[in-house]
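Contributing new complexes? Match this layout with MU-OXO-diiron.
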Amino acid sequence: MYCVRKVTDDLFWVGGNDHRLSLFENIHPIPRGVSYNSYLLTDEKTVLFDTVDWSVCRQLIDNIKAVLGDRDLDYIVINHMEPDHGASLEEVLIRWPNAKVVSTDKAFTMMKQFGFEIGERGISVKEGDSLSFGRHNVTFASAAMVHWPEVMVTFDTTDGILFSADAFGSFGALDGKLFNDEVDFDRDWIDDARRYYTNIVGKYGSFVQKLLKKAQSLDIKIICPLHGPVWRSNIGYFVDKHDKWSRYEPEEKGVLIAYASMYGNTETAAQALASKLAERGCLNYRVYDVSNTHVSTLIAESFKYSNIVLASVTYNMGIFPVMHDFLEDMKALCLTGRKFSVIENGTWAPKSGTLITDFINNDLKSMEIIGNKFTVNSSLKTDKEAELDALADAIVESMK
Ligand code: FEO
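Output block (do not edit by hand):
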């Protein structure tokens, strides 16, 4: 049975939703599932924009057949060749042997690497090239490193539709609600959108900035991403989020408190600091135990907030491993410009705070340390209260 939705009178969503996959890219939890979006244009020529992950290939084929009826498929535009979108290309090519494949040179190289023989069916396009499918004219623009090097985006100049590849995507299955105005995005989707962006594309902020600059010159009415809702209203809201994320600018003045605690004593210090922030009227903070919070969530929150407090026990004379992983992820995703405060704990040789501070200063870029390193010796005592007050004051002051 097919499952399609109209985007416009002659453009159809023909993708699929996946609730069975627990880890996207086999690393990021997706409890709300994920959609793999594919779009089919029925102009004088018929055009498929991207395919889907192998897990929903059957659905894609049924959907294409339902929309095409007895028409043939003329073109397949591949904006992104990563297997969550490109894996079903071979099956589509087998079923519609007259279809030509339109993509970048780099994508054709990748198709070969993944074992797809395109041969004479390939049409290579580059920045600024255009094609007409009848009423619809499209132009192509490179979106290299958003999120792979072969990526391009396609702009339908006739109807103002941007096929944006991974850009403007989100984790979360659509479950029938295709458009952003059919959901409460700011309530139900933004956290997953942030987690998707920061963990999947977050490293490539400068390339996203380039794409946003190109997009500024276009009269975009609809954005069709490869994951998550199609945007047909309030586009500025989502563009603004991407502008902030890709400039590594915090969305909010607020504090992420992430603690790594073995027996609860480091946690107590983190909680005591949180209470002191609340007492000072600073209520925009979130507290996370890094041992039971997936690092993709910690990363998303570190992109969201201006301040980050890291509280870690010393472990094997180092930083607690999951806290160290979090720091390494911040480095890998090129997070910059945050204000850090550090709490360490150790029973005979507290060391984690010094190591965390060194990591922040030497391995991360343009970070600032707020307040003095706060040391706990095994458990928090009342004689440390004034010192903790001073740290809370410094954090609050840094957000003014
Ligand atoms: Fe959704 Fe970069 O693939």
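Reviewers usually confirm one structural detail per submission. For this one: The longest helix spans residues 185-201.
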